[in-house]
Design goal:
By secondary structure, the protein is mainly beta. The chain has one domain. The chain is built from no helices and 5 strands. The chain has strands at residues 2-14, 17-37, 43-50, 56-60, 64-66. Strands 4-3-2-1-5 form a 5-stranded antiparallel beta sheet, with no helix packed on it. It starts with a strand and ends in a 16-residue tail after the last strand.
């Protein structure tokens, strides 16, 4: 399984204007992609992820980011999801 960053939208005041900003929410383990119906006859791509506390959630696909490329190696080991 690969580690992913999960983002959320947060309202922030920037230069006196309220804006929606995409911010990091949590780090999780990616299991697979799926489809989730929206109740209006359409479906959206979702990522099925496992949170650090063991919960399994679906997150819309455009709100995740893979932490590293598959098979990538680094000179220093990183602290991994535990």
């Amino acid at each position: 399984m690969r580690e992913v960053n999960i983002f959320k939208w947060e309202q922030q005041v920037i230069d006196g204007v309220r804006k929606n900003v995409k911010v990091l929410d949590q780090v999780a383990l990616f299991h697979q992609f799926g489809q989730e119906a929206d109740g209006e006859g359409r479906s959206n791509p979702v990522a099925i992820v496992e949170c650090a506390d063991g919960r399994v959630e679906t997150v819309v696909a455009w709100m995740i980011q893979f932490v590293d490329a598959p098979g990538a190696t680094t000179a220093e080991p990183r602290v991994r999801f535990v």
